[in-house]
Amino acid sequence: MLLENKTAVIYGGGGTVGGAMATAFAAEGARVFLAGRTPATLDGVADRIRAAGGQAETAVVDALDAAAVNDHLDAVVEKTGSVDISVNVITQAAIFQPLAEIPTADFAAAVTRALTTQLITTKAAARHMVKQESGLLMFFGGSDAANTYPGMGNVQIGMDAVESLRKQWAVELAPHGIRTVTLLTGGLVDSFPEGPEMDGARQSIIDASPLKRAATTADVGAVAAFVASEKGRSITSTQVNVSFGACFG
């Protein structure tokens, strides 16, 4: 197993993407700790992992509360001895409108939320990883400078901001043996809300790929598990493109 005896903490672990990563990590032998604000979704993911023979624990944690995040992570490390993988898939509230139509306060609040939660969780993990001289900080979303579209509102701007944060962590933490990687996807069709109104968005992602395929949450989980493993040890300070070529970041 690629991740045997590893400890992974996933913030937003009850969601579609976080759940897919947690499932893939657990399938490769990791002990996963799912953190989020909704017990029912966290328990649903954990139950599926355990039913498949994996190890999963849950905790209700507000990832915008630094004290709560630190207390939870301290408890995880006390129990397991380390934190080897930290992933935060919590994103900003997406506002798909022309920038001129978005209220300034709404735009600023969304981007601030994304950066704040990422900063809180990565600071907490880095505190332990620096002591260990090892670990992986994994980010999700990525920056695709080659493709910009009207009407995307705050979405790509927020992801670009988080990617800038990841780059700064990379240069500061690399001397301590800590890796930083972003998974760049360009959109996961099976994470979209159901309904014909999303058909156009799904098709545009497929059409953008030279292979005419779209990445799924399972694809993200599989790549995340590889990157987090010893086989992926040379991958750091970069984005990993999980988009079937739709993105050029």
TrEMBL record:
Pfam families: adh_short_C2. The keyword Hydrolase does not apply. GO terms for molecular function: oxidoreductase activity. Keywords: Oxidoreductase. SUPFAM superfamilies: NAD(P)-binding Rossmann-fold domains (SSF51735). Belongs to the short-chain dehydrogenases/reductases (SDR) family. PANTHER family: 5-KETO-D-GLUCONATE 5-REDUCTASE (PTHR43669), ALCOHOL DEHYDROGENASE, PUTATIVE (AFU_ORTHOLOGUE AFUA_3G03445)-RELATED (PTHR43669:SF3). This is 3-oxoacyl-ACP reductase.
